[in-house]
Amino acid sequence: MAILFILLSVVVAASVHGVNAKHSENVVPHTATRENDFGIEWWENAVFYQIYPRSFKDSNNDGIGDLKGIIEKLDFLADTGITAVWLSPIFKSPQVDQGYDISDYYDVDEDYGTLEDLRELVDEAHKRGIKIILDFVPNHTSNQHQWFKDSVSDPTGDYGDFYVWKDCEKDDDGKVTWPNNWLSFFGGSAWQYNEVRKQCYLHQFAPAQPDLNYNNDKVVEAMKDVLKFWLKFGVDGFRCDAVLALFEDPEFKDEPRSNTRGVTANEYGYLDHIYTVDQPQTFDMIYQWRDVLDEFTYANKSETKIMMTEAYTGVEKTMLYYGLPDGSRKGAHFAFNFNFITSLKKGFNFREFASTIEKWFVNVPKEYTSNWVLGNHDNRRVATRFGPELVDGLNMVSAFLPGVMVTYNGEEIGMEDGQVTCEEGYDPQAIKDCATFNETSRDFERTPYQWDNSTNAGFNDGSQPWLPVSDKYKEVNLAAQNVAGAPSHYNLYKSLVAYKNETFATDFSNLDNLAVIEISMRVVQIIRQATYDQYILVFNTADGNETVRFYYSGGYYNVELASNEGNYKVGDLIGNSTLSLKPYECIVLRQVYLAGGPSVAYALPYMFLLGLGALMRFLNMKVLIFCSVLFTVGVAITGYQLKGDGPNSDWWKTAVFYQIYPRSFMDSDGDGIGDIQGIIQKLHHLQDAGITATWLSPIFSSPQVDQGYDISDYRNVDPDYGTLEDLKQLLDKAKELGIKLILDFVPNHTSDQHEWFKKSVAKEEGYEDFYVWHDGNVVNGTRQPPNNWLSEFQGPAWTFNEDRQQYYYHEFAPQQPDLNYANPVVVEAMKDVLRYWLDFGVDGFRVDAVPHLFEDPELRDEPLIDGCTDATNKNCLDHIYTKGLPETYDLIYQFRDVLDNFTETNNVDTRVMMTEAYDSIEKQMLYYGNVEGTTNGAHFTFNFVFISNLQRGFQVEDIVDAIKTWLSNIPTRFTSNWVLGNHDNHRVATRLGKENVDGLNMLTAILPGVMVTYNGEEIGMEDGEVTCEQGHDPQAIKDCSTFDQTSRDFERTPFQWDGSTNAGFTNGTPWLPVSTKSVEVNLAAQDSEGEPTHYNLYKELMEFRKNFQGDFTVDTSSPIKVNETVLQVTRRVDNDEFILLFNVGDEEQSGDFYRTFARYEIVVGSSGVSYKKGDPFEDLKLSGHEAVILHGIGSNGGR
């Protein structure tokens, strides 16, 4: 069978960067137009253009934009390349909220025209290939709607419960006692008293916008009828407004405090809206509306009618608006992605920008179509929010990213917010308080469109517009920019839309083929691997010139699009990886191949796939082509140093912290329990391994109910482990060997044997409220705990003390009573503990269980999680009153001050604090410091994504997502860290597979920041074998039937030093049995020079980190995959590049990888790899679970 290749000639501009211009005539062609025969629907790569009708074009000079005005401008929209127009509401309305208060869903408001005008608009738009989308406002109507009037006048009639009514009390003074504490989005109570009906109705927005009652089936059917009416009318779909508020808790329970700082009791943000937004029924309602649209599409054999939803909510909830995770129900065709609005602020940095993109595509399932929203009528304009200089780059990013692009009218010409006074304004949430109008009003982004520089910017013929025209219209208007060849926002926007429509028409939304890489502190690179081509966007987000090296896979790159007034022009050809970018410059590149050039070999597979694909389409055949998905973890480093306050303030930022579980490390005296002298004996092992600092799990005086996490004396050593003198000897020896010593600080609770608790029980003066005490409740003569709080170890979190005749609170075991940090005396006592050990000479602290330090002072019941009914199950409660309270972070900041003051006063190396918090990643970031950056907290808070996100059988995507989950949230001023295991989780070799131990250690070693290793992971130890009878874990041994699932004893079995009895741990009977695997897996067997072992590899990794001539703390990383089972992580600084390749699969993998150097050699290889240090590495070839770290050699420039 012959394959015919037809090569179309292209003309490339003679201006060339990095390659001689004579090559330009030999560029392999780029097919500009592709048949859209891949089953892609019209909306999946579309550009949706939001028109705010009131401000778009006024055709009759009454000061208000209208439908006729939009019709006049349809040619402009067609010329721009717009796919679909979404109209903000044009239905009948009193205009209290500019049309979002609808009094008739079936008619057009006279301000905008008539039904006939709308019919003409739909018809004329369709003639031009433009779809029309209406704004569907289902949550509420106007209080002037006939439904509401009937509901008021006849409570028992057909419309009596069309709205949400509740009884409420109004006293003689007119004061109303509301049904509950719910607040409106616009501030104040969400309830309004109706004098006629003598009840209160719910309004989540303005009082003039009463909420519909979707628990009434008649309401559901009535709103479906609205959809059906407009579908028959001929519209192409709906934007569904404020869908998150459709349903409310049927029991109308009070909402809890949000604990958000700086918010008054009257503001919406004062409450955590667990009962008024994103209720489970809400998603089902969206799915029902989708059914209406799909049934119409099917019955009428029409093009797909689409639905897009607006919900400012978390990304997990946003995904539910798309449909059920199992695919059994479909919802919105796309739910608006507001990350560019909610996550970015003026002056954003490269990491925040990349994180904004990553937050979306880490969470969106492959089968959903992404979308990118830069602005809308509810948020300040892009040019105002970020600066006019960033308009082009942001529009380019929005067009370049896969899926739907959404543009608010005016953003295509770079309009800024207009100037509006409170007296001129209309926004109902803002005009009620002129003192805050400038901060709260949405009128600024709604000023009239700027068509030209004539009176009123061409919006109308001179009458007073409903809002004033911006005084910037003479400089910024469409007419001035719509000049052929002129470097303008609008001309670039047209080019972007045309390019998007042509280039990505067959690869509209594939996020697997997307990479976001920060290639310097200010420059972001986005890679899209389309069906046949590779495209790269490079964006300098800063106000200075930047010279950078970008990631590319060889060959040459043509400049396809370029922002205005940059160094690069469309048609320039780039032949190496170096770019020089002006401030805010953004370019889009496409990989091309030069006949006879150095990359001609790369053209062959490209041409083969292109020709084969064309042939198969011509023959109407289907073919499955296996290709590598180019997906890179890029980490580019710019070497900068942060100033510190000690002789070596930054030692910890690139450190390897080694956790020792003392009870299981080394027993020196034969009692079966590891001890401090045993650690001293083995310090040479830590030095040999290249460890920077060792953290000791608790060694303080303790009854050992929870293996030392129940402390009875913070200032002494438990006899099991030795004495204070032993600890001093350990400290001195560690310092002699250059190893820092970190203690485990347990501030949340003490032992019930602590003197403080004994004195508190006795109500001794000064100790009465050292702990959290309460009388409890008496119900039907039976004493009960104060509330429903549960312990981390299950069961009530309250225990009654007979001596004091009160309950005390314990987040963990009953023998671990919680300290009361609302008592400033407790705070100072614990600060004194820190100072004691700092004076003793330790180098810092690991702070245990920090989310639990504070509790709600009102001791309110914690609510059940949606869908969970077992109030005795800890996991069924939403821990809003016992975890992560705002005071917690402030206490951590106070602890940090203690350490910083000691460091500064004594002129010593930085004393560090690391915190343990199994909590949401947003809350974890708060332990680092406050959002404003004015207060420091932990030097780092443990990053548990490799523990929580990875399971046995993990895929490349799982690692990618885990890394992105962390890096997309951590601010640039904080130092990352990577934790593979600890004493509370199954060992890495057991949890993730012993075959992956080397690769995972290599991964954590190459990632930026701190590396944390649990003792034994360096030799690949697996979990030991422990029975319930042998176990000691207090949460597990109380129920032997679940011991195997809940016990932490397995990961705590003794360290395996050699193959002798008890693995060299003890001469006695070990406190936990030594693993039966110790004969094969032990340090002595692996510590043979030159042998390919886990331990020797680990030592090589430590040497690699120490010799790396860059800053391991600065992260510019974005994980992507090379193929289905191979991960690549790249670290670059100055002229050095290091690459990790890790095959997580069972089968051998070969092919290519992303490179910028001419050749590479092996630096480190996993213990079973066939390569040796210094071997050349030309092409990817790795057996199952093998990993290598490569070093780029020679000049950069690709292959």
UniProtKB/TrEMBL annotation:
Signal sequence span per UniProt? Answer: 1-21
The record's listing under Pfam families reads:
Alpha-amylase
Q: Which CDD domains match?
A: AmyAc_maltase
Q: Which SMART domains match?
A: Aamy (SM00642)
Q: Which keywords accompany this UniProt record? A: Glycoprotein, Glycosidase, Hydrolase, Membrane, Signal, Transmembrane, Transmembrane helix
- The name on file for this protein is alpha-glucosidase
* Residue ranges of every copy of the Glycosyl hydrolase family 13 catalytic domain listed in the record: 50-446, 659-1052
Record-annotated membrane-spanning stretches: 592-616, 623-642
Catalytic class of the enzyme: hydrolase
